Amino acid sequence: xxxxxxxxxxxxxxxxxxxxxxxxxxxxxxxxxxxxxxxxxxxxxxxxxxxxxxxxxxxxxxxxxxxxxxxxxxxxxxxxxxxxxxxxxxxxxxxxxxxxxxxxxxxxxxxxxxxxxxxxxxxxxxxxxxxxxxxxxxxxxxxxxxxxxxxxxxxxxxxxxxxxxxxxxxxxxxxxxxxxxxxxxxxxxxxxxxxxxxxxxxxxxxxxxxxxxxxxxxxxxxxxxxxxxxxxxxxxxxxxxxxxxxxxxxxxxxxxxxxxxxxxxxxxxxxxxxxxxxxxxxxxxxxxxxxxxxxxxxxxxxxxxxxxxxxxxxxxxxxxxxxxxxxxxxxxxxxxxxxxxxxxxxxxxxxxxxxxxxxxxxxxxxxxxxxxxxxxxxxxxxxxxxxxxxxxxxxxxxxxxxxxxxxxxxxxxxxxxxxxxxxxxxxxxxxxxxxxxxxxxxxxxxxx
Length: 448
Known about the structure:
The protein is α+β, with helices and mostly antiparallel strands. It has helices at about 65-75, 85-95, 95-100, 130-140, 150-160, 175-180, 195-210, 225-235, 255-270, 280-290, 320-330, 335-340, 345-360, 370-380, 385-405, 410-430, 435-445, and strands spanning about 15, 20-25, 30-35, 40-45, 65, 110, 125, 165-170, 190-195, 215, 220-225, 275-280, 315-320, 345. The mean pLDDT is about 85.
């Protein structure tokens, strides 16, 4: 049956980070955030009242509410006498957008994930699970309800179905337009909100080096492939002198370890950037790498503190302390840039230390595609007011490195080695003993 298209010309409302006054505080298992808008609205996550018991509710789904929703919730709960009754009712109502929206007209919000690592080639995206849940809710509100078994819904459920339990689909907002037009949804009923938690994570990355990750609609911590690569680099590459340090337990250890790290990062690089996957899978991969060598990854290694995650980012550190780090790990200290600065801000030390490790681990034009991703992660960790300065220096240093080693025999050999690593990776997808299959098996077992 053909459907009359009344709402093709409608447009989504949008709330970007520039529109937000974002506040947050630490929370377990996730930070608690609030967004205040100029029009007086306040946005929050649906589970803000039940954070402690969140993972005891396996059927809870994430969605965004505003102060009008919160007021309605408070009014409903006022009819219950005990705190226990109120808690049970609150958990029931906020378990899903379908339950919360039943029989009322409300503002609907869909969170949007920003461009991957700031790369302009990638569009902003939304989780497909959130879209599947909100379609019948909005259609009911606009007076054109559909069955849960509607053929179009079934088509998209099949199309977006994830065939593993450890990765999760997203689609571009441009694709979302077409999907909603197929259902003739009034897009003006929906506000696209840049994910506040993503921005909170970036603040935590800048302040304390926290890994970039968000939560999927089922409240499982997930990570983008690019951020997974950066996490592997930060945890497995930084802290080792790749130039001169020799493992006392294994011959050729550094060479074999580097190969394993590069292979792991290439596996993430080849994943479709529209997929996010379990953060636990990345943590498992990092542990798997660290099991390779007790010498390099011994927790009690007597090395200088190089992460500086417990220091305020604007705090000045004496040049001598910075020089201890670069000398111990045989890193480039970029003296020509930092000369004349007796006290160096923590954020700048972190930036140059990581950049030096990028140069050390990817020398002579080595693995440029992986290096580019790690550099994006490095720039994401710089305070926003210093991003232009940081980008200028980092790109200048990298361009100088590329010009020095372009088209050398070593560079050609590295490219061939990278191609061989990718061939091995593709073959490993069918090897039951490969990292890919072991992670997949572990995640399937964890969620079965």
